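Hi team,

Filling in the usual template for the complex we talked about on Friday. All components are listed, including any nucleic acid strands or ligand strings, so the model treats them as one assembly.

SUBMITTER: L.P.
PURPOSE: interface mapping
COMPONENTS: two
RESIDUES: 1442
SEQUENCES:
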Amino acid sequence: MIKAILIFNNHGKPRLSKFYEHYNEDTEQQIIRETFHLVSKRDENVCNFLEGGMLIGGSENKLIYRHYATLYFVFCVDSSESELGILDLIQVFVETLDKCFENVCELDLIFHVDKVHNILAEMVMGGMVLETNMNEIITQVDAQNKMEKSEAGIAGAPARAVSAVKNMNLPEMPRNINIGDISIKVPNLPSFK
Amino acid sequence: MALKIVKGSIDRMFDKNLQDLVRGIRNHKEDEAKYISTCIDEIKQELKQDNIAVKANAVCKLTYLQMLGYDVSWAAFNIVEVMSSSKFTYKRIGYLAASQCFHESTDVIMLTTNQIRKDLSSPNQYDTGVALTGLSCFVTPDLARDLANDIMTLMSHTKPYIRKKAVLIMYKVFLKYPESLRPAFPRLKEKLEDPDPGVQSAAVNVICELARRNPKNYLSLAPLFFKLMTSSTNNWVLIKIIKLFGALTPLEPRLGKKLIEPLTNLIHSTSAMSLLYECVNTVIAVLISLSSGMPNHSASIQLCVQKLRILIEDSDQNLKYLGLLAMSKILKTHPKSVQSHKDLILQCLDDKDESIRLRALDLLYGMVSKKNLMEIVKKLMLHVDKAEGTTYRDELLTKIIDICSQSNYQYITNFEWYISILVELTRLEGTRHGHLIASQMLDVAIRVKAIRAFAVAQMAALLDNAHLLTGNTQHNGICEVLYAAAWICGEFSEHLEDPMATLEAMLRPKVATLPGHIQAVYVQNAAKLFATVLRGQEGAPADSKVTQETSQLLIDRLPVFVQSANLEVQERASCILQLVKYIQKLQQKDVEVAEEVTALFAGELNPVAPKAQKKVPVPEGLDLDAWINEPPSGSESEDEGRKSKGKAVFAKEESRHTKPRYTEVDEKELAKRREVRKAEQANNPFYIKASLSSQKVYQDAVGVEHIPVVQIDLSVPLKVPGMPMSDQYVKLEEERREKNKADRKKKDKKKRREKGRRRRGDSGPESEEDITPAHMVDIVTEEMPENALPSDDDDKDPNDPHKALNIDLDKPLADSEKKLPVRTHRPDEVLKSPVEDGEGLEVASEPKKKSGKEKKDKDKERKKGKEMKKNKKKKKHKQEEGEDLMEAGSEEPVQSEVTNDVAAQPPASTPEASDLDFWLSNAPVPSNPQEAAAVTDAPPASTPEVASGVAAVAPDSEPEETKSSKHKKKKQKKEEKDKKKKKKKHHHHHHHSDGSGDESVQNGTVEEEEPLPPMSNYALLAENSYIKMVCDIQGNLHDGSQVVVSVIFENKCDSFIKSMELNVLDSLNSKLQRPEGAGPHDSLTVPFQLPPGISNEAQFIFSVQSIVMPQKLKGTLTFIVKTDDSSTHEKLDFKLHFTCTSYLITTPCYSDAYAKLLESGDLKGSSLKLEGVNQPFHHLLARICFHHHFSVVERIASCASMYSRSIQGHHVCLLVKTADQTVSIDAKCDEPGLLGNVLDEIKLTFSQC
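RESULT (copied from the run log):
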């Protein structure tokens, strides 16, 4: 079982949090902070596993994480999950994001956290892995986005126009703060089919 | 400008959307909280609008704020509104918000039931998908109950996308609503073979998750998973399955043997590291489970270790980490194979990655030996010095102590070295583990008598330098060691060189800054030292000055402690102060007081096992909850105030017996009580008796004087604890060993010369045994009460939600279970109930049984269908396994025939179980009969347990085999007609399997060498030239007043037998149950005809009132024998013998419940002796189990306790002992009449064989 999936940046700002067990908001924030604290002090080139923080079940759970440019992707899992399998899953997740957002960067996650949730929902459901095949995930996500678009139809057009105008006014939306090199070298683990 | 115009017309487009909110927050870095609160106000406004688009937008923003830590539960209702939008866009937003912030106590969840149901059945697959995803996050018991059926239907949806989600969410449903597991399981199992790999993977996922918690219920799926494992190419699925097998193998060693080969192949073939690693892990699990049974697995171990070494040597830190992790699993059972990689592991200790160092530390635990302990610890001490983070340093510290103290200090050859290490560790600043070091110091000083002098010297030095430790006292955990130091110096003060100096050190004013509990120990031990000083001085004549000075010192210094805020310190200090003052007075009068003062602290302490107190059995007849004296009302508060908080060591010195005060007791009564008390004290391990057993222990060992202490003490500076001196010990130790070696060499040479025969060259490495400890130490083991109960501590968390999922899945479903029952309340009461009658039945299976009773009438049809399906499946499976179907087909009926498993047509679970057996018995490794009998505790597997054991001896009984296969054929025909009987069979089977499913029964039969002889409960009823009747009588578990008589009719002649009618002359006590409307003397038609040579079975139900006495009923069977040309009417009389045994039902009982039952005192005893029984004990037990429906509770050597229960709930307990051909049975039962008769019947059984 996956207990929680957290994405935060190098400063510990949460970009996505998905808890598969209920905690209240304060505890969730503490868990994020604690996890960030544990993960961020680790060097690059050390192993990607560590024991969970006290709040999220201590040594019964493992934190399995990957660090991509400015973002940490952390999965908190129990003993029934294969460590290397989850590492691959994170890779699949990030690659999927990369495909869906066309060269994903932290800003995509900041502004479209709902979309990230939707993508994640096609991979992991209720703490269990639903799908590991990237093409299948993308197919389902695309189909749903298509539906959304068709529902918005003509009524959606002015709204889109407005949001385009809004974006125009804001210098702060440059796409070039790219975390770019998302396909960071992955240890020789074949990804799942 | 243009913007503003537009804004007026279409207002809502300019509501902030999520992106605007995020942007806004990023632009208000300084006053984020304020900005967000205005945003929340806006959101509240938006939520008030009717437009669903606006609401959805607001909810979307709330979801973001929730992630930032804002409580948005106030908008729960609005979320539900958005969820129920007809548009997918909004629905998705709603469900996402719900999945992020709804939980079990969100009250609006109950409003969602119908909406979710609607979405689940939506024609749009994504509506359904979104609903399932959302539900998986916030499913509650109520939702699970109400929607379970809908989700179950979705498991067979046409779209694989829905199927896989539905399958996956079932796990959550099971967790919240355990009753749904049984009805849903068959479908879930089907999904394991779904054509879509995603669905298949989901099903594997769910079953693995379920099986991880309650593995034994899923053992019967092993063949299916095995097939998947060998056929699947999806690594994700493979990993899950292999992990599952890792959980199953400990339950079924045969499974492990079967697994080794394919796993080894996978290890060799796969390129995926993740898969390789899991394979290695499972192979390890298999080897652990086999470690006792299979000698030829060294190749596999070697393969694992070798692969792990490759992982550890890999540059990828992840692989390194996992390699070490797996290595530590091997370490537990095969330390030797890991030890050869010591170099690698020590190397990992230097890794820059802390996680890897920690894993390597775990491994060190098993690497140490007498030889290398010092060296390894030295290395660790270096790491301690280097370590930066306190966490890692603390970890190192605990590991050092763990390693050294493991298995009762097994590897320590020099305790002086160890004490020095401990003292060195006290230099660690800011460690949390001061108490750990302290307890080690105490433990070593108490247990290793020879080290006391050295320890005391070291501790005195520590006390003297206390200021070094207590830099910033209070919060400094390390000052805990002073607690130990003070106590050791006080308790063993006779070893002190200069007690006066130590006393002075202990009474320094700085001590008052130490934590209270430590001060208390200081004060108390100052008094002990005082006693020592007095005694020391009084030997030396007339130097009363020193003693007077000492007294004065105490009188001067103690007042500081008397003023302490800590009660404990205050109390002790004032007591001792007054005592010293009094002594001073006496001293001034030149009275010799040393003797009396020393007597205050006389006596020696023994280490007591931490659990000792818990283990003292409660004496018979003592009710701990009963009042000794009824308390006068209102005095309770006073009692509470009196509770002492003595946490200190001294509590051990006090007798634990506080005797209640009696008000008026006459002389006689007093004397009697004294007697009782003495007896009690004699038995009480905590009562310190006049002649202490511990002293004996010490005397038995070599006296301190005779211990060959190597003269090294002088070379070691004892003072300044700041200097590491353990190193010197290492050096000394080496020298010593060299010397020993040389000595040995000399001796060897001598011997060689003497014997003139070459011995093993000593140039090779020193073996473990060669290292003699520097001190002959007597390590006192912990004391335990003499009659301590074996611990059966249940470590399981009672609140574990998975406990409720411990449900037997192999039992056939009752018809009513096919549809989920819709209840109004959670069945908490039901779950609790089975405990009360002291039965160890599995909790969750109880409600099922109860319901089964009411629904039995519906059972038959469904079961029939299921059975046929099962049979088909079985056949299919066997073909795939490449087995000879014919052989398999004929073997099974043999089993049921020979053992006379009354449920001759075994209900669904039996083929399942024997399938497993069959599958397992085909393991490549040859498995012998007793292994076949060693079916693990999977309840369903146990019915054929005896059978399979028998089958191994029986196959040569050819005639029976053929007969029984015919017999089986007939049975299917019969089944259609014989519905009523069938249900009885079903029940019968149930209790049968329950009984023998008990783990203990197997315990009784597992390890035996000889196979059991075939046994049958079918007794000849009557026979003539046409027909033979054999019968078996069993109680009905579900109805206390019914017994079921199964009669097998066998046609012995060449003619056709038909129109069989059976009639029995009812007695007052027992009546044949006839169909409604039939008269009391009407006969019952036997529902089949018999062609020549064929046998078939029918069951008849009798109602019984009293079960205390055995009884006989007269009956007649009438039938028509039809030949080609004529037919004759024949009859056969019989006598049906209802033994008391037939009223007993095999019922499992756990040993604790059993003990409770015996203690209750409600049972009356009786006993029986059987002479000249010359059969093995396990045969004997098996016979009693089989013929008399008992189950083995516990078996120890040639003694076993057994249990059974009558249909009316009488408990029958047996204690069977055997010694050279004599078997004595002590029995207890709450119904003496029944017991007597049962014993008579047991006697009869053994007289016949």
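MY TAKE: Chain B touches chain A through 79 residues (CB under 8 Å). The first helix of chain B runs from residue 2 to 9.

Thanks, L.
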